[in-house]
Amino acid sequence: MCGIVGYVGNKRAQDVVIEGLRRLEYRGYDSAGIALVHEGTIEWRKRAGKLANLEKALAEAPLPGASTGIGHTRWATHGAPTDLNAHPHLGNSGRVALVHNGIIENFASLRAEVEAAGDDLLSETDTEIAAHLLESALERCGNLTEAMQQVCQVLEGAFTIVAIDAQDPSRVVAARRNSPLVVGLGEGENFIGSDVAAFIEHTREALELGQDQIVTITRDDVSVIGFDGAPAEGKPYHVDWDLSAAEKDGYDWFMRKEIFEQPRAIGDALLGRHDANGRLQLDEVRISDDDLRQVDKIIIIACGTAFYAGLVAKYAIEHWTRIPCEVELAHEFRYRDPILTRSTLVVAISQSGETADTLMAIRHARQQRSKVLAICNTNGSTIPRESDAVIYTHAGPEIGVASTKGFITQVIAAYLLGLYLAQVKGTSYGEEVAGVVAELRDMPDHVQRILDDADELYALAAELKDTKSVLFLGRHVGFPIALEGALKLKELAYIHAEGFAAGELKHGPIALIEPGMPVFCVLPPRGRDQLHDKMISAIQEIRARGARTIVLAEDDDLEAAAYADTLIKLPRVSTLLQAVPAVVPLQLFACELATLLGHDVDQPRNLAKSVTVE
Ligand code: M6R
């Protein structure tokens, strides 16, 4: 939700801030704005719509040169996406400018206070209230850091706030509670960002901030205090990817680039996880093997695509470990009084590591004394920091709003977790674990071969460009893949799509089938529990009603061709692992269809990359 940038240094702040906003635009793109400190005043521009609108406004009416500034790209919560509601917001006399990510929950009572004091409020946002409060505090104490500390004590909810003072060009002050914020450490310059993409072209040295902390950056210094004013310290870290990873590299979309990066991402997710004998080692898992042996129930919590990765994980974890495993949407889990004990292992899956629904669920689980293990892609983000253990997925930055390499590496990490638990508990024989690990090592090549045939899927997308509705069917791990295929199509192409468990079709959804309706069918590998034959039966049922079947099947599955209007070949892998190759054609199809429809694939309407509000 919302991208935030702050800068103090020796460069033109407008350039640094706008470039940072461009890299953060995936976080929200309802409006954008910038404010600079110039000769004792705040100079600002803001516009509804994408960053391009703000850039146009700046080209028409340039801001003066300044080396201290803040910027914001918005995903609207309080108030419609208009120029007036865009950030930055100013205090009553225009001395303070402030940008904000999150929701201030006691906004109504604070608004009443601010209005009672005679201030004029121009927008419908909760943010403007914070700007007015901050400016009043600043007028009283004369120091922006101290004023921020006072204001943070009265704000409730989730917020990252970044502010500047017209009378003090030397500093930018930021505060965070339940919302992301990192500091970029430069030489003679320092940066604030919602994530490291904001400043990656300037520095790869970053500082992670804790909960309820305030940071003040000047050109040469970074200091951190708690909301209570006590001195505090951030945690420095080195960002292990560079600017090129945050660029499109010749692709039309970040999403397409990220789909094509999946062989590399899978390889990286597996790197260093096993010894020469295939015995797993998960160094980042800080939960002892003794504690893991006590685990008698696993609950996976996540949202969206990460939830579907969790559904895949359930099949694998239960099969390998024989530990009962539930999968639940984090926002449902949090507010339903789930049964949690010390021997429950909660696994939180999140690409961004900032999803508020998942974070709140984690906190609830830890309050009940369950151990939490995060599967996460973003180093230094809140979810791994607040978990007992983490498996990083090492996918590299995912900029496209639709998750692709994030998903595939979550699935790989979940397989590794299941195998590791099986190894620790002794529920699977060593050779079995080593065998699956060896199969996983072949996955990059399998995925690469599917990508090499992308043109076939692109042709299919062109054929189906005018379709109004698409269904996806699967059984076993093919079921979550069907759900994921449908989600990709909904969020990118804005067309009706639904995923079903193939066995459920005859209990109702089959009524949707009309002649010519495209139905993607993920056909399980042959040989396990009649899954393959049962799926063939479902395909026959829909063909009998005129559906156009697009069947994803093992490439030597000769039977499949008889039931397919279009056959998409998958590599031969074991049933539990089929989720990995099977998702790739669905990603390519959705990306291409949305492109042909003229949609913005990287920034679909109404969405944002990381959902930092509940
Ligand atoms: O960052 P997270 O993995 O926690 O995000 C969870 C969902 O918001 C995310 O997967 C969302 O569903 C994507 N738009 C799917 O492509």
Question: Could you please describe the fold and organization of this structure?
Answer:
The chain has 614 residues and is an alpha/beta fold. The chain has 3 domains: 3-245, 4-Layer Sandwich (Glutamine Phosphoribosylpyrophosphate, subunit 1, domain 1), CATH 3.60.20.10; 248-441, Glucose-6-phosphate isomerase like protein, domain 1 (Rossmann fold, 3-Layer(aba) Sandwich); 451-606, Glucose-6-phosphate isomerase like protein, domain 1 (Rossmann fold). It is built from 19 helices and 25 strands. The strands form 4 sheets. An 8-stranded antiparallel sheet has the order 3-2-4-1-10-9-11-15, with helices on one face. Strands 5-6-7-8-12-13-14 form a 7-stranded antiparallel sheet. Strands 17-16-18-19-20 form a 5-stranded parallel sheet, with helices on both faces. A hairpin with a 5-residue loop joins strand 5 (89-90) and strand 6. Helix 15 runs parallel beside helix 19 (579-596) and helix 17 (478-493) packs parallel to helix 19. The radius of gyration is 25 Å and the shape is globular. The protein starts with a strand and ends in an 18-residue tail after the last helix. The structure holds 5-amino-5-deoxy-1-O-phosphono-D-mannitol. Residues 303-306, 350-352, 355, 358, 401-403, 491, 607, 610-611 line the site of 5-amino-5-deoxy-1-O-phosphono-D-mannitol (M6R).
